[in-house]
# Entry
Amino acid sequence: MNKGLTTGLIAFGSLTYLILTGVPIRLAQAALPVLAVLAALFFSLMLRRQGRESSSSELLASGLTAGVVAGLLTTAEVWLFSSLLGNGIKVQPIFDKIVPLNMAALLGVRAGAIIKGEVALGQYALIAIYLAAAGLAGSLLVLFTRSGAAARLRGVRIPGGRWLTIVLPFVLFAYIYYLGLSGVTAFGNNRNIVRLLIVLVATGTGLFALRAAQEGLVQLVTGALLAAALLSLPFILNQFQNSVMSIVFIFVMMGLGLNIVVGYAGLLDLGYVAFFAIGAYVYAFVSAPFSSPYISSLLAGMGISPDAPLLGYWSAIPLAIITAAIGGILLGIPVLRLRGDYLAIVTLGFGEIIRLFLLNLDELTNGPRGLLRIAQPTIFGAAPPDLTSHLDAQGWIFLLAIFGSAVVAFVAIRLNDSRLGRAWVAMREDEDVAQATGVHLVQTKLLAFAIGAICAGLAGQLYAARQINIFPENFTLFVSIDALSLIIVGGMGSIPGVVLGALALKGLPEVLRGVDEYRIIVFAALLIVMMIVRPEGILPSARRRRELHSQLGAIPVPAPDEGPLDEEIEGGRS
Amino acid sequence: MEKQSLSKYLTWLLGAVVGVLVLWRIITVGVAEGYPTSFWISQGINGLVLGGVYALVALGYTLVYGILFMINFAHGEVMMLGGITGFFALQFATAQGWMDGSTTVVVAALLFILVTGMLGSVATGVALERLAYRPLRRAPRLVPLISAIGASLFLQYSVLLIFGVTPHSYRKPDLISGGIRAGNVFIPYTGLIIFLASVLMMLGLYLIIQRTKLGRAMRAVAEDKDTASLMGVNVDGVIVATFVLGSALAGAAGVMLGFHNTVVKFNSGFIPGLKAFTAAVLGGIGNIPGAMFGALILGMIEAMGPSALGIPTQYKDIIAFSVLVLILIFRPSGIFGEILSEKKA
Amino acid sequence: MQRRTALLALLLILAMVLAACPAPAQPAPAPAAQPAVQAPSKEGVEAPSKEGAESEGLKKELGEMTGKVVIAPGQTIRIGGSFALTGPIPDPGKDIRQAAEIAIDDLNAAGGVEGFQFELVAEDGACAGDQGTVVGNKFAADPTIVAVTGGTCSGETIGLMPSLQKARIPFVSPSATNPAITSSDCDICNRVALSDALQGVVDADFVFNDLGKTKVAVMQDSEDYGKGLAQIFQDHFKELGGTVTNSEGIQVGDTDFRAALAKIGANAPELIYFGGFSTEAALIAQQMGETPGLDGSLFMSDDGAYTKQYLDAAGNAAEGTYMSFVAGATNDATLEEFNAKYMDKFGVNPKDLGPFHGQSYDSVMLIATAIKAVAVKNGDNLVIDREELIKAIRNVKGLQGLTGTLSCSEIGECGAGGVQIFTVKDGEFFQVAGFGMQ
# Structure
């Protein structure tokens, strides 16, 4: 009973949160049923643990109590707000989203009715009924999963499951192609969004397919076919879809690079955006010198016109690599002796310092006004989008991003199997032992930072080309967090994991455009939930899963009574 | 070992170079500008006020780190929520006409607002601990850190959605508007209150830690969680108490900052949170008086730095972050050293 | 794992199919008669126009390749809008958006164009260049967007410009005042607000001549708008013979300006001129009173701070401060009608939110006038040629709007009116100089 009561209260709290953030407005008339379904799922999750201990009737009672409690409280709340609104009292100055539309959606009436206060009591009761039903449904669900029928379902094997997984992405790709043909009217106005969604899903299932096709000829063939399908995408998608996919793959590059620093070498870098910014701004400087007052005058002084790009995209790549690497080393040197949280915070500080410099060094970076009209990458002087109508500007960037990701992935794979890679693993496991076995800590760490920085620099350069205009606001802490989350959610230490993370965290939000405001909140909640439920990510490398789920081989961090350094701290700690 | 001391040597060399450059710059530019003494005193006072705010928040960071060895990334948001709750308390008080009443009434109203703000923060802090941190207590350090980042973002954007995008303005009652004038120097009342409040709270906290049973329990948990539990200490309870204390302080900071800066927004907690963390590290994380002094020093550097170095005031944030980076490179244990438990040895 | 994946994928496909369910609001457009009268495209790539079906995909390709927007019956004329809904001036941004919505309502009530209704596609420009770029890219990638009203802020508009230029989508900004926005290089750039080239000069004249202050300090928020305006003010003030003691930059979003103010206070200027937005202006006005050396100094700011938001936030500190505004030549009678409509639809007085509603309404009307001039019926479709639309906007002359008689110059300056100077007395703005004063 008690469990039911608490669950009901928690459910009420969560529902209040959803109401206050205006979710019912988005759901319009579907608000109540959707919320009820969510409530039912919530109840079943909460009651799951009780499910093991109590009898069916107890469970049902708990569920019902929870539902009734949540229902009555929510009804009271909705009634309170509606009455206030009906009496002309504006709640909005306090709670921005408590407007007639919100209440109307929950009650299944029109907004006008709320303002006039003409809502029948029965409508309010509907809320309580729905939620009570949800409570019952929740406990029924728990009973079902507990029961024999569910166990039997779990045991069912789909024949040929492996082949199904392998073939699935290609079926989806074919559908994508089909949807792009003129004359197809499926999905009406939503077609492009749906097509994008399928693209994301298809790429994702492609990853699973690769995994399902175990080592061998099958995997090679699958891989080759998938690559071909992927490369054909830029030519058949429209500008918007291409722009989404291009940012997904730019972040794949970022994720893979950060993976080297965090996943391989175990150095928690929260300021990764700094190198991204360096790559972007360096390319912007040489490609749009006219945008920067300082560079313009410098060039003018040297007799060179600042109006034309100094270097093309490809010629600027070595420059981006060098500057990013220098940045990485400069970051690495001072933090060689730090670890854990301290390393994280210092790198975060670096990231912010870089952004603040970008913002304040107006003369060089044009400050908040940004660098504008960055040139596009060309091949032998011509930009492919101008040559063929089958490839638009964003598609070209997408294509380049795929190549970039392939290059970075290749580097990452080779490094993983190399001596350096093994040194990183050793360093990650235990620095002192690693050093004792001959690993040069300084070199190893600096190389990790430098290589990671180079990957970010390249991604940044491509990003600048994609954006055409860049501003310091494009390089906030968020970018670092995004990159880190890719690895976390997708799977640390694993390349397919990073790609999956990018698809999910960078691609999906674009599809769910209508819920822009909630994007970050969902993202943030996802981070927390992932950490609690599945910290190793969705597609982790096998080693990492073992690490995070065994108490023994966990990522080593200094034991509580060690400080931030890995040598004795002045102060004489024993 | 060779490489290690080489890097150490290089780092110290770099540090010396930076130090010399900074001093040279201060002397040539800052002094040369010839600001009147009253200017420096004004800046100093600004710095102390800033420091007072940072101190209140830093104390919370230091407490949590001392006991849980995790950085509560969302602490800045705890402070912001205190500011928001306080704002609504202020609206309520204004509607009741308390803010225009006699001095006693206004003072009582202000206390009411302060307490409400603190309660808002405490609620947030406790919820944070329970939902985002407790399940992860035994996880590798990366995990609670990510969770904390998620919590920070979640709180910020929830506030943005729930309370809207317009900044919330605190109207200062006449009682605390204005300040003391001494020649060319001006000390705002709000500033004075902030400074005094933070000193008092620091003392209070210190007393709690050193003189009470709860404090002893906190120190025990900081020393060794498992042994303390074996000795009969309610570890979970102590941790919750730690969060309560830290959050209450942050809430007070949020309300006072609201009055001082007259504006609270959803992201009002982020940068001050980072700076407060810098302050805690500067003073020695886990060290309570250290956090206080670190905060004051940081506040002064931030207020006087740009003028002293002759660079635009917009660079004050960069100065704060640079201090963080420098301290962690050269003296990671902070100016005053050690962690909570060490004090006991 | 494979089984679960397969199930998951199947579920996802099911979800997608369900997502497709919301039937298109309009009936699936029937294939229209082959547009045989389609003018030969300028780009010369015509393949897709051979197909007859009016699917969205076809419409897109047609539009992209022939520089025309083809609107099928039942579809709307889509006008994009970039509004500063988040950022430093959310209330004025909301006001501008809502005024635009009223304009669309009015246009549709009057029958639209040839029976085709208008639709506003609102996006958040956040009053910043990076977000402006994002919005610009969104609009550029959408071939159904005919024109854009916006951005609200200068930086935001400058971010919009490159992508709109490339996509040949003209825009009319109701409130972006930075001079660089309109120029002979940009044929798609237009605005209803008056340029800061005027505001900065009028402000400097006012301070020097009317107020008689010769020693001022200038502050700005490092954004295109604030920095640009402050620079114009500063330059002209010096030309008049005044001295500028300090030129300090701050950041949008900062709340503590005491350090910068202390620095300025050391030179004891008679007035501080701030180029920037409401929130920062209010804070500066307040913190000035606490800074030694600045008591007795006046404060003046610009149209970005001429809002109720400023009055609320600054409270008592706003008394006696000055504000300039790029006002239109507003006709009280038509404004009354507009206010009534606004109040009815949104339940709030537009003046309580921001000052640019008249300009916003007029910018949409301007666009609509130009569209009416160039849109032709082709069979059942409405065809709008982009290049012609761009020229048509520039050719608008003598349009009666809420902000006066609008006529666009060769560089896209379409606004009427002049700069007004206000002071704050008893918590309200009162005009003391400038356009329209007797």
